[in-house]
Amino acid sequence: MKHNETTVRVRYKDTDQMGVAYYANYFVWFEVGRCEYLRGLGMSYRDLEQNEIFLPVIEAFCKYKSPARYDDLLRVVTRLNFLEDVKLGFYYEIFNLGKNTLLAKGETIHAFVNRKGKPIVLRKHNPFFWRIMKEKVLELKET
What we know:
Elements: E1 4-9, H1 25-40, H2 45-50, E2 57-64, E3 73-83, E4 87-96, E5 101-111, H3 122-125, H4 127-142
Antiparallel strand pairs: 1-3, 2-5, 3-4, 4-5
């Protein structure tokens, strides 16, 4: 799986009086994409946490191109951007599905930590999950 695509609809509560999506919602939609990406690998956030792997966001970036509006159907495309011993990064693009226009693109970087918030080396802590993620990064480099 080189990337994951999922759809979300802009809800009324996500917008301001002008019907434009509030800027912070893009990070919520990034999270939806990230969760679905991991689920597509066969491991949900719940599975990770049951294995004492937590992924706090340590950096986040979004470049806004065009506004999402109330009731728009959005396509969130998520890719694993990089994988290192103690962190990983995701890249996102959000499109208006009806118009097929790019609305925003961004990145998040996450640390691998245990329940106490201490960094862990994923390849040592959980070689199975490390191998799955590493295969995805190698797939991306081949394209």
